[in-house]
Amino acid sequence: MRFLLIAAVLVLALPAAAAKLPLAPDSPFRLYSVAEGLNQKAVHALAQDRDGFLWIATFGGLNRFDGQTFESLTTRDGLRQNLIQALTIDSDNRYGPAMQAVV
Q1: 6 exposed, middle or buried (CB, 10 Å; 0-12, 13-18, 19+)?
Q2: Where in the chain does DSSP place strands (E)?
Q3: What is the pTM of this model?
Q4: Among the ranges given (3-17, 45-59, 62-76, 88-102), the one the predictor scored with the smallest mean pLDDT
Q5: DSSP class of residue 16?
Q6: Who contacts 88 (Cβ-Cβ below 8 Å, separation ≥6)?
């Protein structure tokens, strides 16, 4: 599971232009974008919980990735706002999104 987190960090952190580069057919990496279920193409933070879910912060909300599919959480699902800048996972396996302050 640690490999999944490292691979996701590397792949999701690619700039949009680099993400259009083709991967070798035998590459262990996969590219994910809005077409695969992310709610926005720019990723700001990643965190992995004890259950192996990868939590992905974007300015379009929060995404949970189970290794196959993305689940998107937004203000419609109870978030105070969609501008997520950072994530933490506490000792009780609860996620904590850090949202942009509205001044």
Answers
A1: exposed
A2: 45-48, 54-58, 61-65, 70-73, 84-89, 95-99
A3: 0.69
A4: 3-17
A5: H
A6: 47, 95, 96, 98
